[in-house]
Amino acid sequence: MPSKSNKVLFRRDPSYARCPSCASVNTLHRSRSRNWREAVIKSISIFKVYRCNKCGWRGYLSTLVITWLSIRNLLLYIVLAMGAGLIVTQVLKRFIK
Which residue, among 54, 65, 61, has the nearest Cα to 23 in the 3D structure? Predict the structure, then answer.
């Protein structure tokens, strides 16, 4: 039985995705930065510049994906951390008095 992954973020290659403009499949490829602003965005963020071979669309696409399962897991971790913090503060208040 395959196990489900508990990763919060998944890395993907948008070049296998559909074009946002013409919806054709496997026509996207990475594009070079045209100016310094695009180079900065490309280097410090999860967004990269892509171009469609079919329609010429050019824009930013994310290389990371967040799934519903990962959002659920992330919220579960946050609730557990807050619960643990609440328990620790209550125990410390009892011993500090």
Answer: 54
Residues 58 and 89 in one domain: no
**How do the pLDDT tens digits run along the chain, 97 residues long?**
444 555 666 677 777 778 888 888 888 888 888 999 888 988 888 888 889 988 988 888 888 777 788 788 889 999 999 999 999 999 999 988 7
pTM score, two decimals?
0.57
DSSP 20: T
Q: 57 and 22: one domain?
A: yes
| Domain membership flag for residue 5 | no
Same domain flag for 28 and 51: yes
